[in-house]
Q: What sequence folds into this?
């Protein structure tokens, strides 16, 4: 059994570049969440999908951020024109059908913007 | 707006001590409260989930209580071990949503 996987685990980029992260949820989990965690803080909700539909987006998700889950399986989170303030750990979580409270988290993608 | 606060922010104890971590939240309209563990640079591992109708949950040396009306939860760790060293995060799921609101965590260090 594989848990939630995220790729890459670490990304260093220069300010102004675009980056894309991928999350593969646990098989047949219908909900997928993205959170962002900055150093010394708890994770903050960004957005979530139920199957391929994006149902909620946080105000934290500026126009430079876009997330997709095209076939209701894996998801991508893209950040355009990265800024130093985007440096954070980006966490993905998924939940099984019928059990929305059980969020299983992936290992995260650590983004550093220089 | 739901806010979650955890105290203390950091804690260092000798091995074998029993300890209590505190979590408070401002809005009592919640589905559940969950305690997570996070090791440095890693994702989150769920420890205990307490539904809004429950008062406590236990798993091994861990016991979590919930007092929804007062907006408080505690995580009790018995006979602490160096392997318990990690950041402990409290999170609440507000009624009507499916997202968690997290506290800033308690960084625990258990000294051998």
A:
């Amino acid at each position: 059994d594989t848990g939630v996987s995220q790729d890459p685990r670490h990304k260093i980029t220069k300010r102004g570049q675009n980056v894309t992260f991928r999350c593969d949820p646990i098989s047949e989990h219908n909900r997928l969440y993205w959170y962002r965690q900055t150093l010394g803080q708890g994770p903050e909700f960004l957005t979530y999908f139920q199957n391929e539909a994006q149902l909620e987006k946080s105000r934290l998700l500026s126009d430079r951020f876009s997330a997709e889950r095209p076939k209701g399986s894996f998801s991508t989170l893209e950040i355009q024109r990265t800024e130093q303030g985007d440096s954070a750990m980006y966490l993905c979580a998924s939940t099984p059908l019928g059990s929305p409270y059980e969020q299983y988290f992936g290992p995260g993608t650590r983004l550093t913007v220089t | 707006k739901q806010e979650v606060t955890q105290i203390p922010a950091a804690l260092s104890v000798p091995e074998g001590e029993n300890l209590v971590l505190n979590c408070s939240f401002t809005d009592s309209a919640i589905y559940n409260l969950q305690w997570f563990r996070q090791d440095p640079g890693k994702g989150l591992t769920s420890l205990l989930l307490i539904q809004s109708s429950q008062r406590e949950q236990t798993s091994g040396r861990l016991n979590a209580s919930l007092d929804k009306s007062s907006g408080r939860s505690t995580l009790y760790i018995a006979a602490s071990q160096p392997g318990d060293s990690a950041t402990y995060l409290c999170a609440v799921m507000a009624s009507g949503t499916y997202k968690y609101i997290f506290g800033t965590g308690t960084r625990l260090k258990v000294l051998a």
Notes: The longest strand of chain A covers residues 29-37. The radius of gyration of chain A is 13 Å. The CA atoms of residues 13 and 53 of chain A lie 29 Å apart.
